[in-house]
Specification:
heterodimer, A: about 160 residues, Ubiquitin-like (UB roll), DNA polymerase, domain 1, five-stranded mixed sheet, globular, B: about 270 residues, alpha+beta, Uridine Diphospho-n-acetylenolpyruvylglucosamine Reductase, domain 2, Uridine Diphospho-n-acetylenolpyruvylglucosamine Reductase, domain 3, Enolase-like, domain 1, 11 helices
């Protein structure tokens, strides 16, 4: 067993887990944060994307022990006081989900893209950079629209370039 | 999917990591884990001990000194792709790193992990061999030509740890990749560099024994460093992979096309558009 202490959505948590426990399992099974979905479990679909120290990672391919001392943000950590995060709001406004299974990973991936991509976010860039997230309903069109809309809301320079 | 039980270790330094490796029954090093952990989940690997090298700051970072660009083993693909130093001195290497997997993979995967694993379709081996780099380990310096032995096989001894890769800075380099539409891995990719009179041409994704050099094409390009010097006759299709992505003849043709493309984008941080 290994003792893992980390920040999850701003709160310090500690759990003793089996060494081979994945970050996704720590979140879902030990901390009851089931907003992080496990889709393929083979590191391909991106449903389990969370942020670890400010960057998007597939939580099904990271050990909980590797997140020791880190800061994790999950989909549950985005809305504040009942107000949706701008990326969540854009997904809602653009109807960027069908069955909703991939949505938490899509939103966390989109947020990483908007916060960390150095250049402007065009439709081409968004489609390319989101290739690590699969939508089994193939509802990509509105997802891309939502990300571009959120980028305009969160990046003042991009809104000005319109 | 559930992995077999294992023990996770955070070494204090490289010596401690080597000691932990020797003490383990069937230990292995863990870097970004984006090959190892999925393999363990499929129960194709079940190491007794995992020794996490990413906790060692001494294995991380990018620097230049005397015409050599040095990249620490646990440096992430994203860090290489975004590095202003790599983009300035070997833009093709930054473009190669930016083309690996997807952005989440690039946020975890490491250059040392990729090179040590020597996947026959991995990108980094093409650059390490194509730039004539030196793989610096905890015990010696290994020239790229002696490092890559065969598919998933390298010159690394049990317990040996890659500290960093030292890339001689070329005058020109280019990388061109043709990706599988499903897996995004290279069906074939070609790295070309020129340093003085020396040209190196390497191919990944297509060789039946992993990454390899195309000596005949190197010689032709050393005479005339132009796309027109590339010819199908320089490629021995007998050494090429045959799988559902393509026949050896298909791959040979692809290699010639990609070699011309790589020559057409020398100095660019771009690899597959």
């Amino acid at each position: 067993m290994v003792l893992v202490s980390l920040k999850v959505n701003g709160a310090l948590v500690s759990r003793e887990v089996e060494d081979e426990t994945l970050l996704a399992a720590l979140l879902r099974e030990h901390l009851n944060l089931t907003g992080t979905h496990v889709g393929c479990d083979t590191t391909q679909c991106g449903c389990c994307v969370v942020h670890l120290n400010g960057r998007s990672v597939k939580s099904c391919a990271v050990l909980a022990a590797q997140a020791q001392g880190g800061a994790v943000t999950t989909i549950e950590g985005l809305a504040k006081d009942g107000i949706l995060h701008p990326v969540q709001e854009a997904f809602h406004q653009c109807h960027a989900l069908q069955c909703g299974f991939c949505t938490p990973g899509m939103i966390m991936a989109a947020l990483d893209l908007i916060e960390n991509h150095p250049g402007p976010l065009t439709e081409d860039v968004v489609r390319e950079e989101m290739e690590g997230n699969l939508c089994r309903c193939t509802g990509y069109h509105n997802i891309v629209k939502a990300i571009l809309s959120a980028a305009r809301a969160m990046r003042p320079t991009e809104a000005a370039a319109e | 999917m559930v992995m077999y039980p294992t023990r996770y270790h955070r070494p204090r330094d490289v010596c401690d990591a080597v000691r932990l490796f020797a003490a383990g029954e069937d230990a292995t090093y863990l870097a970004g884990g984006h090959t190892l952990l999925p393999t363990m989940k499929l129960r194709l690997a079940h190491p007794s001990d995992l020794i996490d090298l990413c906790v060692l700051a001494e294995l991380h970072g990018i620097s230049t000194q005397d015409d050599v660009l040095s990249i620490g083993a646990t440096t992430l693909h994203r860090e290489v792709a975004d590095s202003s130093v790599v983009r300035r001195w070997i833009p093709a290497l930054a473009g190669l790193a930016a083309s690996i997997g997807d952005r989440h993979v690039r946020n975890r995967g490491t250059i040392g992990g990729s090179v040590a694993n020597n996947d026959p379709a991995a990108d980094y081996p093409a650059a390490v061999l194509g730039l004539g780099a030196i793989v610096v380990t905890d015990r010696r310096r290994i020239a790229a030509d002696a490092f890559f032995v065969s598919m998933y096989e390298t010159a690394l001894e049990p317990g040996e740890i890659i500290r960093r890769i030292e890339f001689p800075i070329p005058e020109q380099a280019g990388y061109a990749k043709f990706r599988s539409a499903a897996s995004r891995y290279a069906i074939a990719a070609v790295f070309i560099s020129k340093r003085g009179a020396i040209v190196r041409v390497t191919v990944t994704g297509a060789g039946s024994a992993g990454v390899f050099r195309l000596r005949a094409m190197e010689q032709a390009l050393e005479k005339d460093f132009l796309p027109a010097s590339v010819a199908l006759s320089q490629i021995d299709s007998g050494a090429l992979l045959s799988d559902l992505n393509g026949t050896p003849a298909y791959r040979a043709n692809l290699i010639a096309v990609l070699a011309r493309r790589a020559l057409g984008r020398l100095g660019e941080a771009q690899s597959y558009k």
